[in-house]
Amino acid sequence: MAPPDAATADIAPPQVSHDHGPSSPPAAAATADMQRPKYSIMDTAALAQVLTEHRIKLHPHVENIQRHYILHGMPLSVAEIDWSRIANLPKAVGPLLAAHFGLVTTVTQTNRSADGYTTKLLVKLPSGSLVETVIMRYDRHQRDVDGDDTASIVSTTQGKPRTTVCLSSQVGCKMGCSFCATGTMGFTANLTAAEIIEQLVHAHRVQHVDHVVFMGMGEPGQNIPAVFAAIQTMTNRRILGLAPRNICVSTVGVLPLMHQLLDECPGVNLALSLHAPTQEIRNEIVPSAKVYPLDALMAAVDAYIARNKRILIEYILIKDVNCSVPAAHELGKLLAPRARGVIVNLIPYNPTETGRQYVPPTHDDVAEFETICRQEYGLRTTVRRTMGQDIDGACGQLVVKEQRKGRAAKKLTAAAAAAAAAASPSSCSDRPAVDVEDLAVAPAAAPDTFERKIGRVIKRRSSPGRDDTPAAADDAARDGDSGKDFVRDWLPVGLAALAGVLVTRVVWKLATRRRR
Ligand code: SF4
């Protein structure tokens, strides 16, 4: 059926429903900057609903709109785009898009590493939360630049140069891995599919991206609907057209994700963050291991390999925790039966602020671990380069730092409020509650109190004029009290001194008379 003539359709604000919690567009409209568009241009559901409300057929317009936006350089404002160049698009759609769509996230910080290979974007969501997006560049010259000769560099120098973007899927994470900065934040919210795709859009604006990994903040397995929807948009040939083999989803071992990925997103790669060769060590550093035990994970790995040939096994190497020689043998024994289908990516621990005193392995530790896996168990291995350490490259580091700055500023404000309350004549119950750390800052109140006292003295001496403010009345009352105190304290002393003088005088007169 041909679309109705939509040229006269009104462009009243549409009501689009989403079910992705606090970061959904309606919540954004209520809380975020009112200048921002209400809906993301990459939000397929919102686009579909708005077009439906205006009786405009969805196919092929939704895909055409998103593709047109991408082909035109993904500007921050969709109003810059000439929508009339899309064939057969009703004229009313352009004003609709300009009025209600755009990018709902913004980049608030862009940090580039000194070597130029890593760029970290701090992305602000409509809810105000921050997530990280990392762009990593690999090219044939890296070996010469960094002088490294690890296995990963050998593999990196093969093939074409490429740019990979690492996306976040959640604000914070509830999995609590002990070596991860994001794990210390706790969980705040799931990202919507549009918020995930917009990270890719922002990265594309910095540099053309050809590979995507879901290894940023959050566990994709805890936000499966949005992650799968984002991947489906990315791999849609009529929209972003990324090859599924260029996308990798990393999970710490959430079984539903491992089982569903190939059904929902065929050809997409899976990485299992194993990090330990035994259930005991895994329990220690990956708390979710208790829910998803090692034997169930290996069964899921085998099922995945049967359909997609190979899986990436990620293994963080932490000295004195999981990178000993026995641990290498345990890992070898665990993976040897499926050696043809696994690639083990060894990741030297990147020091981060987690509250744990973990130590990175030495170069020799890494080499020995890798040699055992390769030579004794026939595993294919790579060693991940440490990238972007000078810009807090590890997952969640930058956001944790920003949050800490925000908390410090809040505490200073609270401490200042506490100090003001302490200096005021109001009762204790009027003072804001403060915690122990606030109390440590609270002595800042002392100079203020001291200045008030000094101020009263100066005022009494230099300004006899009347002050009717409540504070002045309070000061005057306290001044009157201090006068009474003086009389009470010094009157007995004065009387005693007077009595002493009188007694001395009487004694002296009596002595004088006797001598005569
Ligand atoms: S490593 Fe991944 S799953 Fe574990 S806490 Fe960090 S973000 Fe979450």
UniProtKB/TrEMBL annotation:
GO terms for biological process: rRNA base methylation; tRNA methylation. Residues 464-481 have a biased composition (Basic and acidic residues). Its main location: cytoplasm. Residues 1-34, 461-481 are annotated as: Disordered. InterPro entries: Aldolase_TIM, Methyltransferase_A, rRNA_lsu_MTrfase_RlmN/Cfr, rSAM, rSAM_sf. It is found in: Cytoplasm. Residues 1-14 have a biased composition (Low complexity). Keywords: 4Fe-4S, Cytoplasm, Iron, Iron-sulfur, Membrane, Metal-binding, Methyltransferase, S-adenosyl-L-methionine, Transferase, Transmembrane, Transmembrane helix. It holds the Pfam family Radical_SAM. Residues 159-390 form the Radical SAM core domain. The chain crosses the membrane at residues 490-508. GO terms for cellular component: cytoplasm. One of its GO terms (molecular function) is RNA methyltransferase activity. Its cofactor is [4Fe-4S] cluster. It comes from the Eukaryota. PANTHER family: 23S RRNA METHYLTRANSFERASE, RADICAL SAM SUPERFAMILY PROTEIN. This is 23S rRNA methyltransferase. It comes from Allomyces macrogynus (strain ATCC 38327).
